[in-house]
Description:
With about 375 residues, the chain is an alpha/beta fold. About 70% of the residues lie in helices and about 10% in strands. α5 (about 150-160) packs parallel to α9, α6 (about 165-185) crosses α9 (about 245-285) and α11 (about 300-325) packs antiparallel against α12 (about 335-365).
Amino acid sequence: MNARATLNRDGETLTLALSGRWCLNDNTPDLRQAVAQEVSTAAALAVDGAAIETWDSRLVAQLLGLQRWASRQQYALHFTRLPDGVDALLTLANAVPQPDHRSEPERRWSPAELWAALRYGWRESSQFIGELGYALGRAVGGRGDMRRQDFLHFFEQCGPGAIGIITLTSVLVGMILAYLGSVQLRQFGAELYVADLVAIGMVREMGALMTAVVMAGRTGAAYAAQLGTMQTREEIDVLKTIGLSPMEFLVLPRLLALVVAMPMLVLYANLLGMVGGGMVAISMDLSANQYLTETANAVSGVDFGAGLFKSVVFALLIAVAGCRAGLNCGRTSAAVGKATTDAVVAAVVYLIVADATINILYDKLGI
C-alpha cells in the first residue's frame, strides 16, 4: 500500500497517522505540508506510526524534518508506536546540534576592547620574534635543533619549485612596463628609453615586489597550511613533549630556505622581466643591440643591491607571516583554512608597508 498521512483531531491535539510503505522509491507525502495548515489551531501534534508496513531512511528523514520544523515553530511534538529502530535513529540524528545560520548582529568594539586586542597582538608578535631570534642564535652557534635535510627540502620547494610561475609573471610584468612606457615615450620619439624604464623598474621595484607577492600566495600559504595541519594533529605538542623546539625544528628551516632562495628568484625575475620588455621594444623598431646597450647603461650595482635587499626583507616577512599563522592555528580543519587566509593577507600587507618604507629610506639616503 502506498504511503499515506492522515490527519485527525482529538480536541486540541492533532494526530498524524502514517500508514503504508515509506521507502526511498515510493511516492511519500511531505509531513510538514500535511500539518502546516491545521497545526496552528492545535495545542500539540502527535505522529502515530502503528500502521506503517515498510520503511527505510525516507521515513527517518521525513520525521526528522518534521521534528525540526516543529521545534522552530515552537509546537509540541511527540511520536507514538513508531517501528522498531526509528526512535534510535532519530536520537542519533539529533545527537549533533544543528548550526545556527542566522546572521549574528554586528559586533561593535569598545575603545577598551580595541586597545586590549592591539596590546595582545603586539605582545604575541614580540614573543614570536624574540623566540625566532633566539632560535636563529642557537642555529648560528651550532646548538639548534634544525636539520640540514629539512632546509634543503624547503629550499627545493620555494626555490626551483617556483621557477615556472616566476618565469611567467616576470616576462609579463616586463612586457607591461614596456607597453606602459612606450605609450608616453612614443609621443616624444624616445622609444629607446623604454629599456631604461624596464631595467630600472624591474631591478629596483617590480622584480622583488612581484616575486614576493607570488611567494606570499604560494610559499607563505603553504607554510601556514603545513604547520596548521600539524597543529590540528597535535604533532607540535608532541615535539614540545619530547623536548624539541618547534621554532628551531619547524620554523627556522622554512625561514632560512626562503631567505636564501628569494634573492636568486629576484635576480632571475629581473632577467626575465628585461627579456619581456625587450620583446616589446624590438616590436617598436628598436634593435636588440640598442636595447641591450641601453639596459646595461641604465642599471648599476647599487640598483641591483637595492632590489636584493628588498628581497631579503620580503622573504623574512613572508616566512614570519606564514609560520606565525600556522603555529597559532586552531584545532579544526576550518581553522587551517582561516590560518592560510590570514597568512596571505598579512604577508601582502607587510610587503606593501615594507616596500613603501624602504623606498622612503632609499630616497632620503640618496640610493
